[in-house]
Design a protein that fits this description.
Radius of gyration: 19 Å
CATH topology: Aminopeptidase
Number of helices: 9
Number of strands: 8
Helix content: 25-40%
Structural class: alpha+beta
Distance between the termini: 69 Å
CATH superfamily: Gcn5-related N-acetyltransferase (GNAT)
Strand content: 15-25%
Number of domains: 1
Largest sheet: 8 strands, mixed
């Protein structure tokens, strides 16, 4: 084989390795969106962008998760760093993840949140084995992990969307940035990655405020775990999930009432 042939083979092997990393063997293939679903996701993303602009922030989409981790740790070192958005622990790239940088008119960082998708043959197993937070070949090291209740996730498989790692600067809170950024990410993950299920884990004290329902728009808290993120004290985390169909239903409802400022206002 000549040098050109070797180079072509190497590129093919690289592509095959990339596919292997992104789509885990045994996971069901994601179902393409219908034209209507695509249009709903796109229109909803535009609505959330309009609301963020009116709130006074500029949002950029980024893929450098090393930078995400650096900024997140600097902004809030007293809270756990969610390693599902840390490239030292998880394989993250443009084809399966992105994060939002929200800045004030002066260019200062005021909020950030991560979004990723992954293919799962068994979501409960991916959570219980901590694969959600560490999927690199090298061992992650010791950790504290305990399933309290994950019955709602049993039988879930396919393409899973996951949002988290949220931080908002204290003087920019109480403006529903968390809700707008979360819903914008959900719309773009649906449009770009065709997720089957939307999921999130929320620290117990934050979950107690109702943010998962009032801001993030989940139907409710359906499970609990305890985890230390490999390098923090053990934290109780509330688990939330909803299907693609439920996500689309809630997007439609907000598009029918575009003046509503939160998902909670739609159901008041």
């Amino acid at each position: 084989m000549d040098e050109a042939g070797v180079a072509t083979l190497e590129r093919a092997e690289e592509r095959a390795e990339t596919v292997w990393r992104v789509a885990r063997r045994g996971a069901p293939a994601p179902q393409p969106l219908t034209l209507e679903e695509f249009q709903i996701a796109e229109a909803f993303a535009e609505l959330m962008l309009e609301k963020l602009e009116r709130a006074g922030v500029r949002v950029t989409i980024e893929s450098d998760f090393v930078e995400f981790v650096r900024l997140r740790l600097a902004a809030s070192p007293e809270t756990p760093m969610n390693t599902t958005y840390d490239p030292a622990h998880v394989d993250l790239s443009l084809v399966n993840a992105f994060w939002f940088r929200a800045t004030a008119p002066d260019g200062a960082l005021v909020a950030m949140i991560g979004h990723r998708t992954f293919d799962s043959a068994d979501l409960v197993q991916d959570i219980a084995s901590v694969r959600l937070w560490h999927d690199r070949p090298a061992p992650a090291g010791p950790c504290v992990f305990r399933v309290i209740d994950l019955d709602a996730a049993r039988g879930i498989a396919g393409r899973i969307a996951h949002s988290g790692g949220l931080w908002i600067r204290p003087d920019w809170r109480k403006r529903n940035l968390s809700g707008y950024l979360d819903h914008l990410g959900r719309a773009l993950m649906l449009r770009n990655f065709w997720f089957d299920h939307m999921t999130a884990f929320i620290v117990d004290k934050l979950a107690a405020t109702g943010i998962g329902i009032r801001q993030y728009g989940f139907p409710g808290i359906v499970g609990w775990i305890e985890f230390n993120f490999f390098a923090f004290r053990p934290v109780r985390l509330a688990y939330c999930q909803m299907s693609r169909a439920e996500s689309l239903r809630r997007m439609r409802a907000w598009l029918e009432q575009p003046g509503a400022e939160s998902i909670a206002a739609l159901e008041a």
